[in-house]
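Contributing new records

If you add data, match the layout below exactly. Sequence lines come first and carry their own label; structure lines follow with theirs. Keep one chain per record. Anything else will be rejected by the validation script.
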Amino acid sequence: MHSILRHPIGEPLDVETALESPAPGSNVPGSTASTDVPRKRLPNWATICEASVFVVFAVFFILYGVTPIFGGDGMGLVGADEPRYAQIAHEMLGRFDSAHTLKERLSACVTPYLYGHPWLEKPALYYWRAMFVFQDFGVHDWSARLPSASFAFIMVALIYLHMRRFRRGGHLDAALITVACAGIIGFSRGASTDMQMAAPFSIGLLGWYAWYETDSKFWLFDIYFFTGVATLAKGPVAPFLAILVVVAFAALRREWSILKRSFWWPGVVLYFAIVLPWFVAVQHQNPTFFREFFLEHNLERFATKRYEHQQHFWYYLIVVLLALMPWTVIAMRALVDGIQTSVAEWRLRHSKPDKPAPKRPGDAFPEFLVLWTLIPIIFFSFSQSKLPGYILPSIPPITILTGDYLYRCRKTGLQFWVLLGHALLCGVMSLIAFLLPWLVAHGASMPPTHPLTAALLAAIGATLLILVVVHGFGVARLRLATCGILVVLVFFLYGLGPFFGSPAITSSKRVVQLLDRSYSARPLAYRLGGLAPANETVAVFRVRRDVEYGLAFYRNHQVVNYEETGVPDEEHLLVARVTGRGGVDLHTQDALGEYLEGRQYEPLFTWPEQGLEIYLVGRK
């Protein structure tokens, strides 16, 4: 137990305040008479350099390859949720712009619409933020992603500032590890509600713990305000998880009084002032909202398999391991260290019943982070519907633990197996990234010698770089070495440029163009736009939902699905899926013959990257 406690997770809290000044004439060094004007303390050069490093990496990992001026918007919307949510925001903006009075405009912001029908699966926070981004930057796929990117940056920046204020030393490590892990990079680039919930939820819990350490109501404000924002992103799951974390923390610490002290009437009023107006208004406009949202899309989604997202109970263990890459090995060691420290603290408190509670609240920080990590994972593991974004709120506490763990290892060094595991994982990531174009184009087949050799050399180089840097410069440089490898991989995937006006290197964009053609409907929608204007009919048959919703967003017009609404009478373009995974023939031609009942149709072109064939179907 002593070996666990000899390296405390944080440092003693030193709070400086500008409200206390030395008395006039005192001999306190640096004191001045009360008549003197106090001098403002400017940040020193080291602080400016550190903050600059954070901002540069954070902006790069969150925005490069998202916006046209910084890396280009090389990847269109992917999956079913991105184009669907973006289209809802687009339609809400259309209703907002067509309103003439303030009352009509406010009413247009209440009910989300998809293809002219109310869409009540999620609250409206993402749609509001996206529609107002659309007003400023236009309706684009990249602008639909800015709400998530901006929330991710705010979250990581506040992690940096929080740790610098309360756990100085590991603050830059924690912030860089957070912004440079796969889960945060991925979801910060998604036009979805996941980051809209995870970011304010994380900020709120950090604020609550700051209140626990300082007893300042200023910090208690955070948990109520940001939990209210998170509720508008995904609903009641945000306050439910926050309450679970706080109650579990109070139970583990046997400090039940913090529950009473956490209940703050101004905060409760603030929370309901944020949440209730929209929930009341949408229920007023849509009497079925309570049943659809609370009963179907919350309770039924959790308790039943109705929405067909069932996975194994251990599904989120795999998701967490992948979301933390390339820091997975160190993060798991840091999590184990946090659990061991928490258990040791718990045993120390309970081994001597007459021993007073620890006077330094910082001792509780690892316990709080461990509970914050585990509770969402355990809770959603019992859900019958599982999607990766559900446990995004569990990633920041693990990365904070990891940053603090690395800082404490600067003197003693990392265990060799942890360092080697991290280096090998960086090498494996590099190998997969450099082989990704071949794997996307040809499937899981053995690549030829040239790309395989290049990928192996990149993997070996990444592994050796980590080992050499840590051996020569210490653990403090591990973060920069790892982030440097990630920068190279991002450049490989998204290409070089453009950079704020300077043009892109066209030959470096081949990988992202391949990914775009293989996973997004954008290139196909642009091709169809040259054959049929947006107001003409496009139909789909047997395609994935992401293709259907993607074509609808890029054409700003709902597509017709043969299997749901039948075959339209007018002449139209048809996008049909003819091959499945591994090139399996889906016998689409035979099925089309039955649907079209002798109508003339001719193939126009194929889209082999997604197994599609496009037809021109004649009038009935």
